[in-house]
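Design job #97: recover the sequence.
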């Protein structure tokens, strides 16, 4: 009897698990014999037992190794380390030392393979030694340093202001722009060499007030007009040429008169004044020509840039005078 009771209970448990038998029926107390007949009660819809609802389906947990369709599989730590190790070598071969150092630092982490870590540490140490570093400096023309200067390298801002700290750069030529809010900008082209450490790149900004001072100082020189010596020598030249004309005409008239009246037996005392007139005419011609040339030289020297000089002089001689003009441009 006990064995039969256990068999019935195990069967009831299976039916309960399958949802086909209420638990109150399976575990009713008393022997499993036939129950006495009871008067039938009228059934109502409310008394009719309703089946229990089926449990809701639970969605399966996502598996990282098998992502849903359309989504790329997440790379493992080993794959990321291997990719960083390869990028270290390719970036260095391309001359991108800064990017190569960043990749070497990435594959030097503890989650990477020990062999890769050793190689990446070795690469990083070598790149730290070979990568050039630059230090920017800006000064004022009137003296003093500037720090509120923005620095651009190859079109990218590398420093919002000058701090004195070194900045890493790839080897090769670079174009730098130093921008000051009040003094404008300065351009500089330099080549970074492998192994350069803390190389100073310095620029000097001009004094913004110096331009106005230079214009004010240059204004009198440009608006001075014709030099004074031009007028002086020009006047001397005109007077000398007038003297040449007077003495020449007077001497020619006296010569023609004496040639008709007493030649060839003219008194020497009368001939000497005529000769002196011709001599004075030659001297006046030389002085006039030299003065005119000197006036022109002074005029053009005053119009040209600095470094020009003009020297003029007249030297008397036994047979007249010698005028000389020396101009340096």
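Job complete. Output follows.
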């Amino acid at each position: 009897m006990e064995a039969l009771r256990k068999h019935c209970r195990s069967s009831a448990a299976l039916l309960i698990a399958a949802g086909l038998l209420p638990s109150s029926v399976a575990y009713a107390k008393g022997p499993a014999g036939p129950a006495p007949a009871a008067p039938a009660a009228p059934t109502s819809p409310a008394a009719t037992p309703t089946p229990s609802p089926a449990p809701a389906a639970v969605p399966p947990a996502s598996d990282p190794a098998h992502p849903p369709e359309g989504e790329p599989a997440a790379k493992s730590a080993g794959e990321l380390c291997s990719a960083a190790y390869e990028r270290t070598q390719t970036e260095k071969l391309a001359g991108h030392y800064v990017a190569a150092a960043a990749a070497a630092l990435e594959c030097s982490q503890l989650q990477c393979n020990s062999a890769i870590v050793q190689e990446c540490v070795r690469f990083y140490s070598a790149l730290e030694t070979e990568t050039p570093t630059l230090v920017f400096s800006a000064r004022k023309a009137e003296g003093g340093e500037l720090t509120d200067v923005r620095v651009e390298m190859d079109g990218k801002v590398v420093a919002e202001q000058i701090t004195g700290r070194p900045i890493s750069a790839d080897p090769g030529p670079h174009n730098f722009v130093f921008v000051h809010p009040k003094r404008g900008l300065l351009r500089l082209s330099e080549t970074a060499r492998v192994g350069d450490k803390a190389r100073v790149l310095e620029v000097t900004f001009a004094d913004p007030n110096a331009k106005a001072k230079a214009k004010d100082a240059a204004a009198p020189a440009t608006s001075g007009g014709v030099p004074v010596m031009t007028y002086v020598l020009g006047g001397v030249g005109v007077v000398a040429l007038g003297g040449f004309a007077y003495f020449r005409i007077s001497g020619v008239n006296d010569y023609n008169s004496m040639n008709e009246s007493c030649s060839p037996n003219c008194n020497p005392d009368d001939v000497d004044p005529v000769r002196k007139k011709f001599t004075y005419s030659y001297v006046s011609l030389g002085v006039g020509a030299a003065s005119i040339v000197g006036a022109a030289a002074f005029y053009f020297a005053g119009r040209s840039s600095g470094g020009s000089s003009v020297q003029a002089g007249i030297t008397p001689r036994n047979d007249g005078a010698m005028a000389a003009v020396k101009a340096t441009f």
